[in-house]
Design a protein that fits this description.
The complex is a heterodimer of chains A (about 210) and B (about 325). With about 210 residues, chain A is mainly alpha-helical. Helix content of chain A is about 65%, strand content about 5%. Chain A has a two-stranded antiparallel sheet. By secondary structure, chain B is an alpha/beta fold. Chain B has two domains: about 180 residues, Dihydroxyacetone kinase, domain 1 (Rossmann fold, 3-Layer(aba) Sandwich), CATH 3.40.50.10440; about 140 residues, Hypothetical Protein Tm841, Chain: A,domain 3. In chain B, about 30% of the residues lie in helices and about 25% in strands. Chain B contains eight helices and 14 strands. In chain B, strand 10, helix 7 and strand 11 form a beta-alpha-beta unit. The chains are: A mainly alpha (about 210), B alpha/beta (about 325). At the A-B interface, helix 3, helix 4 and helix 5 of A face strand 4, helix 2 and helix 3 of B.
């Protein structure tokens, strides 16, 4: 399987649509255990990221991810800005100058993003943060060299999101709630799921096991 | 949502423009940013103090920009940390070569965004130090969590570190005195009614007519518990008791007291709270060096208050008493 610059651009655009559609929902999740700005901030940042991509002039995957990361870093704010910004900047760095990559390269880039998120957020697995979905997703992508099985992906995410929901937050504003954070979705994990879901849909369209388009 | 705004997306921009128009002799806005700096920045030969965070806490932080306090305040969207490029712009605008101290409230977003900015500034050869304020005793401190939140006590850090910077002390000493304030300041708040982030359009939480939230954070984050509304004296006892326990004050200790309104609390009620706080301190023979009653670190239109105690030594007391000339803190 291959991943191209055009697919990278398509991913960011489709992720933006999903985030715009779910802006209120993400904000509601954040109102329950955070400060209620997650949907608002991500919607603003991804809209700007797409505006920047529409200006064109980028012809490799690294540049697309790097520009997206820099835009998110400066336009999202809050905690998600540095975390999503770092994730995309790390992926951009790993794929610098590459126009078309193999799946193993994409997997490596996502590994770099996971490492960046952990470092920037000083989070550990199990802290109930977006990292708790990024790590299993990185593992999933590593096993996808023969294509993406959308059903397997969605089952994995469903299970992981449910697992994360039952964790007690130990980082970020939700950690102030102590055990009152248990039973609530982590907004960053849910928005990460939108990113991964749109990516996997794009990957499966280019020849995965599961061709159905959601 | 009923607010005196034009458009939810423009509240920060419109506020900043209004502040500069109201106080042109004190503040200027760096072009294309949400940064407000001292009108005379950079101040030659002096360490510059930069703070900021999400908007909605006014007068924090731009209200404390001026002689003897901050050199720049970076305003994020409402309750959202500003991005690193904004913080970096502030650092570069106020650095006179003597270095810059970042005063950060302890929230994951603020810490990350300010730290990225500090890394970028250091790469450009600017000396940057930082302190993280975590005065809220409502939240349990633990190595497994983000730790305590920064709330109204932050303003004492601005005042005291700002006074030392104004005297021409080097960056290391300004950072040390800021740390000393942080080590000696504790706060706790409570809310009677919620607040609405303009872009969200509805309240972040709800409280029943007869309910209050003890330990409420300044972004509407839940506190320690919900309880039935009680008298001002009882609430003052709860908040002050927790602060006193944590600070472990002894007879004869000197303190500065801040009774901070969260945005929709009548000044009358703040003084009613202070009446009890002062009596509690007197009973314990704790010396009240100075008292500040009013709005310092608000939470939009939330009703409620926080109580802050700062334990003073001679150095901190002298710096607290030093001159300041800002929109929201004046001392001759």
């Amino acid at each position: 399987m291959r991943f191209t610059t055009e697919q990278a651009v398509a991913w960011i655009k489709r992720a933006n649509e999903r985030i715009q559609e779910n802006r209120e929902y993400l904000t509601e999740l954040d109102q329950a255990i955070g400060d209620g700005d997650h949907g608002i901030n991500l919607a603003r940042g991804f809209r700007e990221a797409v505006t920047a991509l529409d200006r064109g002039g980028l012809d490799d995957i690294g540049a697309v991810f790097n520009q997206t990361g820099m835009t998110l870093l400066s336009k999202v704010g809050g905690a998600s800005g540095p975390l999503y910004g770092t994730a995309f900047i790390k992926m951009g760095g790993a794929l610098k100058g590459r126009r078309e990559i193999a799946f193993s390269d994409l997997a490596q880039a996502i590994d770099a993003a996971v490492e960046g998120i952990g470092m920037r957020g000083k989070a550990q697995p199990g802290d109930k943060t977006m990292l708790d979905l990024w790590e299993p997703f990185a593992g999933f992508i590593r096993g996808c060299e023969h294509g993406v099985d959308l059903k397997a992906f969605r089952d994995m995410c469903e299970n992981e999101l449910e697992r994360i929901k039952q964790l007690q937050a130990r980082r970020g504003r939700a950690s102030f709630l102590g055990n009152r954070s248990i039973g609530h979705h982590d907004p960053g994990a849910v928005s990460s799921w939108y990113l991964f879901d749109t990516l996997c849909a794009i990957l499966s369209e280019s020849g995965g096991h599961d061709g159905d388009d959601h | 949502m009923k607010k005196l705004i034009n458009h939810p997306e423009n509240v920060v921009r419109d506020m900043i423009d209004g502040m500069v128009l109201a106080h042109p002799q004190k503040l200027k806005n760096l072009p294309d940013t949400t940064v407000l700096v001292r009108a005379d920045a950079p101040v030659h030969g002096k360490v510059a103090l930069v703070s900021g965070g999400g908007s909605g806490h006014e007068p924090s932080h731009a209200g404390f920009v001026g002689l003897g306090m901050l050199h720049a305040a970076v305003a994020g969207e409402v309750f959202t940390s500003p991005a690193p490029d904004q913080v970096l712009a502030a650092i570069k605008a106020v650095d006179s070569g003597a270095g810059v101290l970042l005063i950060i409230k302890n929230y994951a977003g603020d810490v990350m965004n300010f730290e990225i900015a500090a890394e970028l500034a250091a790469a450009e050869g600017i000396s940057v130090a930082q302190v993280i304020v975590n005065d809220d005793v409502a939240v349990e401190n633990s190595t497994y969590t983000t730790g305590r939140r920064g709330i109204a006590g932050t303003v004492f850090v601005h005042k005291i570190a700002g006074a030392l910077a104004e005297q021409g002390a080097p960056l290391e000493e300004v950072q040390q005195v800021a740390q000393k304030v942080i080590a000696n300041v504790r706060s706790m708040g409570m809310a009677l009614s919620p607040c609405t982030v303009p872009a969200a359009g509805k309240p972040g939480f709800t409280l029943g007519e007869d309910e209050m939230e003890i330990g409420m954070g300044i972004h509407g984050e839940p506190g320690t518990h919900r309880a039935s509304i009680a008298s001002a004296d009882t609430i003052a006892e709860t908040l002050t008791g927790k602060v006193l326990d944590d600070l472990q004050l002894q007879t004869g200790d000197r303190v500065a007291v801040m009774i901070n309104g969260l945005g929709a609390t009548p000044v009358m009620e703040l003084y009613i709270v202070y009446n009890k706080v002062a009596r509690m301190l007197q009973e314990r023979e704790i010396v009240i060096h100075d008292t500040f009653v009013g709005e310092y670190m608000t939470s939009l239109e939330m009703a409620g208050c926080s109580v802050t105690l700062l334990k003073l030594d001679d150095q901190l007391a002298a710096l607290l008493d030093a001159p300041a000339d800002t929109i929201a803190w004046k001392k001759r």
